[in-house]
Amino acid sequence: MRHDRIQKSINAYLCRNVSHIYARLDIIQSISGLILAAFIIIHLLLEASIIISKDAMLMVSKFFEGYYFFGEKYPGIISFLAAAIFFILIIHALIALRKFPSNYRQYHILKQHMKQFHHSDTHLWFYQAVTGFMMFFLASVHLYIMMTQPANIGPYASADRIYTDWLWPLYLLLLISVVIHAGIGLYRLALKWGIFERNVHGNQKYVAKKSKINRQIFKKIMLIGISLYVIIGFTSLVSYLKVGYEHRDKAGERYESIEKEVQL
Fold it and tell me: How many domains does one find in the chain?
């Protein structure tokens, strides 16, 4: 009897504390994912400044180097920001790994489940897992370059890296994986934290129906957002390729148009 009571106490303690740990991990994963998604949304819009002009892109790079705050450029700021995002990415990936199939048997069960039930959210989770796996390795290369070569950012420097150094295939794959992962991630965050059910009152049947409608609306917004950002990112990449192609004979030269105008 005493042994049974001890075992029950141990089981209760483990259940209570393990559930708390998983809850905390879910919160950390949600917060880190939200930070990364917000960063991606802002980052792609700022990178799109090259579509406007080289001067617009130079202004953005100088802003993040602190030129407009301190009167001179500090590329180390970019290194710090890249390192911070890299740290958040690692934490997010490590926590997310616990939900991945750990062996072929689990993967096979997941595939059978997807085929049998045709549940769209399960497919979205699978796409997010695949793009997350791709993104971790591709983003790591990009962030490492930003950490170690923070001064090599600008209309010509970035274009030379993309065209002359042949990094455009990496950035193309990174663009697709990161936008899809972020879009699905935001949808799943809304689903996880009950955004679809908020301010919905009535009987259970009505709430379920309204939740389904809200989910469908958010899915459409998600698809529109993913398509829009892929287009923006792809247009930016083509613009960098164009600049890099035109600048190929002078690769390594820096674009200093605005600085020259200020000095004059």
Answer: 1
- What does each of the 264 residues of the chain score in pLDDT, given as a tens digit? 554 555 455 455 445 555 577 778 888 899 999 999 999 999 999 999 999 999 999 999 999 999 999 989 999 999 999 999 999 999 999 988 877 776 667 666 666 766 666 667 778 888 898 999 999 999 999 999 999 999 889 999 999 999 999 999 999 999 999 999 999 999 988 887 776 666 655 566 666 666 777 788 888 999 999 999 999 999 999 999 999 999 999 888 888 764 444 343
Instruction: State the pTM of this model.
Output: 0.83
Q: Is 185 helix (H, G, I), strand (E, B) or coil?
A: helix
Has residue 7 been placed in a domain? no
Q: Please, where are the H alpha helices in the chain?
A: 2-47, 49-52, 54-64, 67-70, 76-96, 104-117, 120-148, 155-163, 168-192, 204-246, 257-263
DSSP secondary structure code for residue 152 in this structure: -
Distance CA 32, CA 119 (A): 26
What HEC string does 60-128 produce?
HHHHHCCHHHHCCCCCHHHHHHHHHHHHHHHHHHHHHHHHCCCCHHHHHHHHHHHHHHCCHHHHHHHHH
Q: What domain range includes position 159?
A: 24-263
16 lies in a domain? no
The CATH code of the domain that includes 48 is: 1.20.1300.10
